[in-house]
Automatic annotation (TrEMBL):
Stated name of the protein: Quercetin 2,3-dioxygenase
Keywords: Oxidoreductase
Annotated PANTHER family: PUTATIVE (AFU_ORTHOLOGUE AFUA_8G07350)-RELATED
EC code(s) of this entry: 1.13.11.24
UniProt-listed Pfam families: Cupin_2
Superkingdom, natural source: Bacteria
Source species taxonomy: Bacteria, Bacillati, Actinomycetota, Actinomycetes, Streptosporangiales
């Protein structure tokens, strides 16, 4: 059983709003948000870790490549527990890397490296961790997407175009709409 808290992001949460408190969260009971067709569940964020790292999952159906973007101050980890995810990363020298990751595979994206991903199989799950000197970005998902109270999302959530800029600036996400991947893996 978990205790429910209120945070500055939502009226009801299983995550304590301050650092230094041990806590436990049952599967799927973190702070959930829907962004397009992806369900993001946050288990630990900046509030709990003094902005040193976050821990979240991203689950979704097979779909389109998310937009290329980078994080100026954040390193990002992709660990695949279920399904398959294609990760695209460009290193600081302009070399592009593309890899199909399946259950048990790991991908690391250094700060400032453009990257994107595409879920290649239905019911895929990414475990994500992000850390860096600029803090964490886990609340980007519910700022741009929509917070969820229910366990199962109903349909995709497409944000209004004007929300992209403000949410991205607030959470260390720089979208790169003109970026092209030389090999998109299709």
């Amino acid at each position: 059983m978990t205790i429910e808290y209120a945070t500055r992001y939502r009226a009801r949460s299983h995550i304590p709003p301050e650092p230094g408190r041990p806590y436990f969260i049952e599967k799927g009971m973190g702070d959930r948000a829907l962004l397009f067709t992806d369900l993001i569940t946050i288990y630990a964020g900046g509030e709990q870790t003094e902005n040193t790292f976050n821990f979240f999952t991203c689950e979704g159906p097979k779909g389109d490549t998310i937009p290329a973007h980078r994080h100026a101050d954040t390193y990002e980890v992709f660990y695949i527990t279920d399904g398959a995810v294609r990760l695209f990363v460009e290193d600081l020298d302009g070399g592009q890397h593309e890899r199909l990751l399946t259950g048990g595979d790991f991908g690391f994206v250094p700060k400032n490296c453009p990257h994107a991903y595409r879920i290649e199989r239905h019911h895929s799950r990414i475990v994500g961790v992000a850390a860096g000197p600029g803090g964490t970005f886990e609340r980007f998902f519910e700022t741009l997407g929509t917070p969820l109270e229910e366990q199962t999302p109903r349909g995709p959530f497409v944000p209004e175009p004007h929300k992209f800029g403000a949410a991205a600036r607030e959470h260390d996400v720089l979208f790169m709409p003109d970026h092209e991947w030389r090999n998109d893996g299709r």
